[in-house]
Amino acid sequence: MNPDRQAMIAGWKSPRKADRDITAPRHDPSNRISKPARQPQSRSTPASANTSSTGKYLTQDEQSEQFVADEDKFVLKQAKKKADIRVRERRAKPIDYLAFNLRFIDSDRDIFDDDEKDMEIHIPAPEAVLNMLNVAQLKELEEDIKSYHTLEANRMNKDYWTALLALCVDRQQKLKPQGPEGRAVTSVASDVDKILSPKTLEQLEALEIQIKAKLQSDGPIDTDYWGELLKSLLVYKARAKLQKVCQTIKAARVELLKASNPEKAKALEESNTKPVATPKSAQNSAKPASRPVAPTPASQSSAPPPGTARFASTENEDFSQATKALYDREVARGVGEGEEIFAAEEAVPSGTKPLWAEKYRPRKPRYFNRVQMGYEWNKYNQTHYDHDNPPPKVVQGYRFNIFYPDLIDKTKAPTYKIIREHGRRRGESFAPAGKEDTCLIRFIAGPPYEDIAFRIVDREWDYSAKKERGFKSSFDKGILQLHFQFKKIYYRK
């Protein structure tokens, strides 16, 4: 080899280690590839548990549990969506109002399910919804609440349904006829109310522990009294928990409203959201009071549902507690599909003053009426419209519900009659082409109620009762119900 080249190579070489083989690969500590040492597996932990803990593999039981949880979550989400739709379309059931209340604090909700107009919808307080229902309706509501309670995983939401379930059961017990034991318990009800009503949730929980300890002790005590006190305490505790959740809902609504409607947010923040208490007369009996009760000022009544503000526009309207109970119960039924709230009230044709006006204070009956709307597929509409582009809706019928709970003579049921102006008779038409004749329907009752009239479409009624919403004319438990649809005219092709 060239001596110069050999010298150059010798100068570039790093110092040779004594134990290094000259033919072995060159050592580079900064670029070493090595296999990590294997960790010894604990004998107490099976391999399947390790794979499950990493989330890569699940056992068959864990897969089944995960499937059930996902299925429950899907069913709950769909139930909430259906409740929202029914509330927005004003055909909600009682359970829908209770579910809609939670939407403002539900962390599991999808924001794409929200609607801008949801903040404008008036929803009755949860306890007020319970107070509107009878025993059969409460039983149905109890089953609906149990379904939500079973599916719900959110802790605050579950507390909400737990409290409502306890109050629903308690409300049913109060509406049922009382036996000897129930009448005996009623004697201490006022004492129980004085003890429990002013206490907070924390105070009720502390008192619950004391009462349970007292009942478990061997000392001589009045078991009936303390047992009833504990039973009532659980109801007050549920009411306090419900009130706590409602306050959270209210605070969330206020925050959402501050951006869109600051004035309404301030009004809501200053409003009192305490649940409507059940009158003692309603707690002890399912029947409404038959005596006239002093009217409640309109300023003290709760805000009506959307579209019903016109119902309370006159000073002489009936605001008795019995009427309010009937009215609230009918409002809770909601508005069905294809229905709208109907309040086309007209002035009653002037006449002589009733003879009983000096003896009884005349009052105007309250009502909650619905008009049934739908499409009419006559020959013209079939030619110019289709199901994707339907014609304008027309009136197909009415459902009148007028409340007369305080009639003096309950043996005489209220009646109605049809009034056609300008001498027009039944079957005649003075309306121009494309228009429909209208007439007045006047409802007549005895003292202390004044007559009331509405303007309706003048068409032939269908008196068939075979349909789901067929003809109905009845007076029961203080409610005059007149439901009818118009006869349909079928056109041959």
From TrEMBL:
<comment type="similarity">
    <text>Belongs to the CACTIN family.</text>
</comment>
<dbReference type="InterPro" id="IPR019134">
    <property type="entry name" value="Cactin_C"/>
</dbReference>
<dbReference type="Pfam" id="PF09732">
    <property type="entry name" value="CactinC_cactus"/>
</dbReference>
<feature type="region of interest" description="Disordered">
    <location>
        <begin position="262"/>
        <end position="317"/>
    </location>
</feature>
<dbReference type="InterPro" id="IPR018816">
    <property type="entry name" value="Cactin_central"/>
</dbReference>
<feature type="compositionally biased region" description="Basic and acidic residues">
    <location>
        <begin position="16"/>
        <end position="30"/>
    </location>
</feature>
<feature type="compositionally biased region" description="Basic and acidic residues">
    <location>
        <begin position="262"/>
        <end position="272"/>
    </location>
</feature>
<feature type="domain" description="Splicing factor cactin central">
    <location>
        <begin position="59"/>
        <end position="245"/>
    </location>
</feature>
<protein>
    <recommendedName>
        <fullName>Splicing factor Cactin</fullName>
    </recommendedName>
</protein>
<feature type="region of interest" description="Disordered">
    <location>
        <begin position="1"/>
        <end position="61"/>
    </location>
</feature>
<dbReference type="GO" id="GO:0005737">
    <property type="term" value="C:cytoplasm"/>
</dbReference>
<feature type="compositionally biased region" description="Polar residues">
    <location>
        <begin position="39"/>
        <end position="61"/>
    </location>
</feature>
<dbReference type="GO" id="GO:0045292">
    <property type="term" value="P:mRNA cis splicing, via spliceosome"/>
</dbReference>
<feature type="domain" description="Splicing factor Cactin C-terminal">
    <location>
        <begin position="356"/>
        <end position="493"/>
    </location>
</feature>
<dbReference type="Pfam" id="PF10312">
    <property type="entry name" value="Cactin_mid"/>
</dbReference>
<dbReference type="GO" id="GO:0005681">
    <property type="term" value="C:spliceosomal complex"/>
</dbReference>
<feature type="compositionally biased region" description="Low complexity">
    <location>
        <begin position="292"/>
        <end position="302"/>
    </location>
</feature>
